[in-house]
Structure formats: C-alpha cells, structure tokens
Amino acid sequence: MDWMLFLIFLAACFAAGTTGAVFPPGEWYKTLDKPPWTPPDWLFPVAWTVLYLSMSAAAARVAPLDGSAYAMAFFALQIALNTLWTPVFFGLRRMGMGFVVLLCLWVAVAATLVTFWQLDWIAGLLIVPYLVWVTVAGALNFSVWRRNPNAAAPST
Questions:
Q1: 2 Cβ contact partners less than 8 Å away, ≥ 6 residues apart
Q2: Is 117 within 8 Å of 58 (Cβ atoms)?
Q3: Which of 19, 47, 129, 141 lies 20 to 30 Å from 25 when distance is taken between CA atoms?
C-alpha cells in the first residue's frame, strides 16, 4: 500500500468528518425522540475513526490500479455525500432531506464496495463495515424523522 495515498485519503475523510464539529448535534438533537436502539454518543467518533481508517486503506489499495477510474469516482461521490449529510441533518435540521442524502450515500457506498471488490477483494472487504454503518444510520435517520414529525427546522 502506498502510504502517501493512504494519508491523502485519510485527510479527505477527516475533512469530511469536520462537519461534525461545525454542525454538532446539540440540544435540538438531544430533545428528539429516538429509538431505543440508538447507539450511544461515545460510539460515533470511535466508529467514524475506524471507518475512515478502513476507507482510506481501501482507497489507497485501489487508486493506483489500472481500471480504477469508476471506483475512485464512486469513492469521491460517497465522501461528498458523507460530507453533506451532517449540515443537512444537524445544520439545517432537515431530517427528511437528510434521509434522502443517506439513501444516495448508501447507493454510492454500495457502488464503491462493488467496484473496489472487482479490483481488489481486500479493499472491497474494507468497505463492508462502512456500508453496514450507513445502513444503520439510514434506519436511525428515518426513525428519528418519523418519531418527530413536528420537530421544525429553524426559520430563516
């Protein structure tokens, strides 16, 4: 694995993750009705750190390979959608639109997994936990949205 590529992809992943600091969940999210299976708050930064490390390793394995153009395009799309979700959900407080972003993210991550797997099965395997996490996140987003139909977004 090319360690410089790994560090570049890791920087991109952590740049996406900074939206969590810019748009933290805050009091609004704490007051929402959430399902009993909601992961504890401490798990989110731990999970994202592990996921970003695996995603970066996977991308670093695939990027230098011949025929990786579509795989890397899907990687770029999923990291852009990953970056978008937090400001939409926590910043704008648009839970329905956040769910739409998550659906698109799920498709992009699934496409990343498939195209990575076709080039390097280990890279594909490294994306599996991310797809699982996005699946759980989508279910959580949907559940919170449905449980809180009157949780209005801030007026502009």
A1: 60, 63, 64
A2: no
A3: 129
Task: State residue 139's pLDDT score.
Answer: 97
Locate the domains of the chain by residue range.
Answer: 3-147
Contact at 8 Å (CB) between 93 and 26? no
Indicate left, alpha or beta for 126 from its phi (over 0: left) and psi (-120 to 50: alpha).
alpha
What pLDDT is recorded for position 34? 95
* Residue 39 CB-density burial (10 A; 0-12 exposed, 13-18 middle, 19+ buried): middle
Question: Has residue 146 got a pLDDT over 60?
Answer: yes
- Architecture of domain 3-147 in this structure: Up-down Bundle (1.20)
pTM of the model: 0.92
pLDDT per residue as tens digits for the range 32-72: 999 999 999 899 999 999 999 999 999 999 999 999 999 99
Comparing CA positions, the residue from 95, 63, 68, 98 lying closest to residue 81 is: 98
User: Cβ contacts of residue 99 below 8 Å, gap of 6+?
Assistant: 138, 141, 142, 145
